[in-house]
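Structure tokens please, single chain.
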Amino acid sequence: MIYALFTPNGSTDAAGQGQESMIKGIGVFVLLIIIGLNMMPYSWSKIMVLIIGLLLMYLIYSIATN
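Here you go.
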């Protein structure tokens, strides 16, 4: 995620740059949620982080294989 934030936009058209900025923003938001939930002292929050992480890995895998 840090690498994606510091690389320049790869698209040359306006729509591609907007989509890339949106994906980076959503990625930062999700990471902040995961970090915040993982720092809480409750076990349910750590379980939610595990479930969110597994769902994200499945989503990335399904996008990469199609």
